[in-house]
Amino acid sequence: MTLAPDITDLLARARADLRMGVPIVLGTDHGLLVLAVEAVSAERLTDVLALGDDVDLVLTGRRAATLKARAYDGDVARVALPKDATLRWVQALADPADDLSHPMKGPLVTRREGDPTLHRRAVTLAKSARLLPAVVTVPLDDPERFAITHSLTRLDPAAVAPRLGASVIFDSVVSARVPLRSAQNARLHVFRPEDGSEEHYAIEIGRPDRDAPVLARLHSACFTGDLLGSLKCDCGPQLNSALAAMGAAGEGVLLYLNQEGRGIGLANKMRAYALQDQGFDTVEANHRLGFEDDERDFRIGAELLRKLGFGAVRLMTNNPAKIDMMEKHDIAVAERVPLIVGENPHNTAYLATKARKSGHML
Predict the structure, then answer these.
(1) pLDDT confidence of residue 303
(2) What is the pLDDT of residue 194?
(3) For residues 354 and 333, what is the distance between their CA atoms, to the nearest angstrom?
(4) What are φ and ψ of residue 221, in 5° steps?
(5) Cα(22)–Cα(300) distance, rounded to whole angstroms?
(6) Structure confidence at residue 331 as a pLDDT band (50, 70, 90)
(7) Cα 213 from chain centroid?
(8) Which residues are catalytic?
(9) Torsion of CA 199, 205, 210, 214, to 10 degrees
């Protein structure tokens, strides 16, 4: 019988636990108890601090740089938490919302001894759950027993590693005709990843020839721009212009990828917006939150194009990273089709930052 959850099931369960403030266990012979800083309660934090003297707050190197904390491990920093650490202080280290009004949070003592591999995995898990990339960790000598005793989800790091940051397998769920204002001959395809993460969609206009380069766009979901008509970005105009161009051509495919906010999720995108209101540009805001410039995975687009039967595209984009990723994953880019629309007084600085710091061809 195969009733027990496999690693894919456990990974989905672990993400849900972290979002609800429930600890997870990472490890086999030796391991870590892991809690997401954003979701942990004051009571749980107190209980965790009582477990030992080696309780750490693990931040990304980006966030550590903002806090002027030494990241001896490069991409992550392990900040030793004192026994009297409060939830408010720990969350202030992870969330930059009040950095300007309360800049002094240290001195912070960061660890340099030991292997940080599991700590990196823990931060990556928090990112994949669309949480702030900050976790509280406690070393465990017997992870399996601890997990069983406390009824916690336990992940084997060796099994998890290949699935974190790797392209996943997608199942085609359903497709149906959806007439659009810009193209009445449209079909919507729904793809569901086997790892329990967000679904992604493909809008196919007409019946494009699978043996010829198809007019295509990889469009990352933008709730504020696509649905609300936000003027802070150019996403909504790009979506509508791409569909209009495909409708006029009679064919095309638009992949609608659920990678909101360059892959950091809507809540974190709003945190970045709040930081932009404090005077930081879009890249600086991401870094202060602990993220990279762009956390999206464009390999998803290549995989979905292959699922649909396409091997070559005329790609509607201003982003050279999308072109590079398509070609690295065996989707030929026969032509780049510029998509320069939607500039307005509210997003001029944002677009200039994308061009200057992210290489967008605007």
Answers:
(1) 92
(2) 81
(3) 22
(4) -55, 135
(5) 29
(6) very high
(7) 29
(8) 294, 296
(9) -90
